[in-house]
């Protein structure tokens, strides 16, 4: 009888952990591939602003009773489009992001105040709730990620060119404006997916920190991208494993691992510069 109970318990644990691992691996891949471009284009603040609108969309979804993932995705895409269309000049970018961020955050707080459901759902929007990812959310995440990666593969070369030197890219006929809007939407989708894992407040730990760490140890775009993917995967999967024993929020461990990797890379970079 005890053996049967042990088997049932093991199957239950596997059923609980497997969606977490799959979701984390997919998000790590997407964040790792997009991150170096985000860092190159100096869009860290834009990612933060987009995550706030993903939070607003998720809060609206809670209020009207639909899937949080769909709401977060809709909110982040709207934010990305607004940022891409309104930030016509680099000098305008920060002010536009700040205005949209503040409006979105206030609206999200209002939606949560009106929501009368479980408080854990409200908290999960800010800190992530990967443990509650079901089959529907998982397929949404995988489908959205495949779409992001397919579009990124199609536009990567002109996008990277425009990211490194926009003025020369314009002179060569590259549609820099269109690429900026498309990339903003890709970042918005990836941000919405990341919100499910680490929450709106900590999304930078996936979208920025691994890429920032990679940029400290290599100047090669290819190597930086590969390292960013590795760092993102280690942060996500390592954070998940570490969170299982104490039963604490996954986001705390993901961000801790990610920041530790960044510190190690920064120290290694500083040591190398002193030797040279």
Automatic annotation (TrEMBL):
Establish whether keyword Transmembrane is in the entry. yes
Record's bilayer topology term: Multi-pass membrane protein
One Pfam family, short name please? ABC-3
What is the annotated localization of this protein? Cell membrane; Membrane
Transmembrane ranges, per UniProt, are 20-39, 60-84, 96-117, 138-159, 179-204, 224-244, 250-269
The family this protein is said to belong to: Belongs to the ABC-3 integral membrane protein family.
Q: What is this protein called?
A: Metal ABC transporter permease
Species: Saccharothrix hoggarensis
Name the lineage: Bacteria, Bacillati, Actinomycetota, Actinomycetes, Pseudonocardiales
